[in-house]
Design brief:
By secondary structure, the protein is mainly α. It contains five helices and no strands. The radius of gyration is 15 Å and the shape is globular.
Length: 110
């Protein structure tokens, strides 16, 4: 039983990170390309702006996941990008999934 619990403690965080990576690559990166702003701001630009606005990971994740959960112009910290590319559509993801993706973005060097 101890081995099972230990195994779960090791692999659950790894699985969550892999899942967030897959979700980002399969969904977010469609519009938010690495290094390229084509139909939406690049993920590099977004990450840079959010890290400037939110000095710790917890605040970064909270704000990004809440904004993506319910995109609105009033709460945008990237108003110039919203004007250029328009408001992001509502994606119908649950908050936990968005938090996992935001955490992945914060931790990943693109």
């Amino acid at each position: 039983m101890k081995k099972l619990i230990l195994t779960l403690l090791i692999f659950v965080p790894v699985f969550a990170q892999d899942n967030a990576s897959l979700l980002f690559s399969g969904n977010c990166e469609t519009c938010h390309r690495v290094g390229k702003s084509i139909s939406a701001p690049s993920i590099n630009l977004i990450k840079k702006r959010y890290k400037e606005a939110f000095l710790n990971k917890k605040e970064f994740i909270k704000y990004m996941s809440e904004w993506v959960y319910k995109p609105n112009i009033e709460g945008s910290i990237m108003l110039e990008q919203v004007k250029k590319y328009e408001l992001m559509p509502h994606l119908h993801y649950d908050k936990k999934t968005l938090e996992d993706i935001a955490s992945y973005i914060y931790d990943t060097e693109f």
